[in-house]
């Protein structure tokens, strides 16, 4: 997973504590994937997360760290 501050160009790869490594886990009860992100290592602001899928595509999501 790559993190990009909204105000900067290019990606910065950060080492942060999450689930096991950089993997999602599947919740059978809610039928969804979950990724636990510890955001304390991220500076406040808007970040774009890039999620690389196994089929060579990527998905993006925006988060805000306060």
Main sheet makeup = 3 strands, antiparallel
Oligomer: single chain
Runs in which pLDDT lies below 50 for 5 or more consecutive residues are: none
Structural class: mainly beta
Instruction: Give helix % range.
Output: under 10%
From the spread of the alpha carbons, the general shape counts as: globular
Distance between the termini: 20 Å
Number of helix segments? Answer: 0
Helix/strand order: EEEEE
Number of domains: 1
Mean pLDDT: 74
Report the count of strand segments. 5
Main-sheet strand order equals 1-4-5
Our Rg estimate from Cα atoms comes to 13 Å
Strand content: 35-45%
Describe the structure.
By secondary structure, the chain is mostly beta strands. The protein has one domain. Helix content is 0%, strand content 39%. The chain is globular and about 30 Å long. The model has no long low-confidence stretch (mean pLDDT 74).
How are the SSEs placed, and which strands pair?
Layout (H helix, E strand, L loop, with lengths): L1 E4 L19 E3 L4 E3 L10 E8 L5 E8 L1
Antiparallel strand pairs: 1-4, 2-3, 4-5
Using brief descriptors, characterize the structure shown:
about 70 residues; mainly beta; three-stranded antiparallel β-sheet; two-stranded antiparallel ribbon; 5 strands; about 0% helix; globular
């Amino acid at each position: 997973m790559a993190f990009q501050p909204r105000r900067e160009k290019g990606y910065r790869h950060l080492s942060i504590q999450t689930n096991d490594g950089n993997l999602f886990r599947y919740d059978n009860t809610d039928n969804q994937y979950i990724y636990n992100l510890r955001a304390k290592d991220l500076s406040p602001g808007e970040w774009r997360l890039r999620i690389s899928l196994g089929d060579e595509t990527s998905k993006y999501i925006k988060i805000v760290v306060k």
